């Protein structure tokens, strides 16, 4: 069922020029939960210890949680202790338990109505993205050639450069001006906008990212991903 909000958005936002969609994954196609963040912190702590961090597991979990609180990810404080992200990336994502992710039946049905070519571009690993999509019952929408991890962009994150966006656009065969980039982090949309992409921020009622905050590189704001998906499926 289409919500009243979705109907209002369809009257306000014109996405008729869009010929392809590049999706962020984590925090965009599903919302973070306390259980998920706890799983990330445990995986980060155990991975850092395996890579040589001299700390007991409980203290490392607390450090990961503090890193998440201060920096938005479980890794940053471990980097300050000498852990290299290139060494951390794959084993960490292998260690996160995707079973804690909550399925969203409405999201799956709404995405099934979208006929545009779509691709995942994530700062996580490709393996994590594949497992996540299976857990969320969305794997049928994104085949092997339509999932890009940050390793596919030479470990150039979305906030750091254009490499991932350029690969994504090439994979779906769409020019920047005809593509939509959907993210939950404003910093990850700067380079997308630089390539001419239409940019959409899903802020999940996070008032730090809401519409009253000015971001010149963001074209559209959405409180919930599913409202955007329903616009694309019109």
Automatic annotation (TrEMBL):
Pfam families: Hydrolase. It comes from the Bacteria. GO terms for molecular function: hydrolase activity. SUPFAM superfamilies: HAD-like. InterPro entries: HAD-like_sf, HAD_sf, S-2-haloacid_dehalogenase. PANTHER family: HALOACID DEHALOGENASE, TYPE II (AFU_ORTHOLOGUE AFUA_2G07750)-RELATED, HYDROLASE, HALOACID DELAHOGENASE-RELATED. It comes from Micavibrio aeruginosavorus. This is HAD family hydrolase. Keywords: Hydrolase.
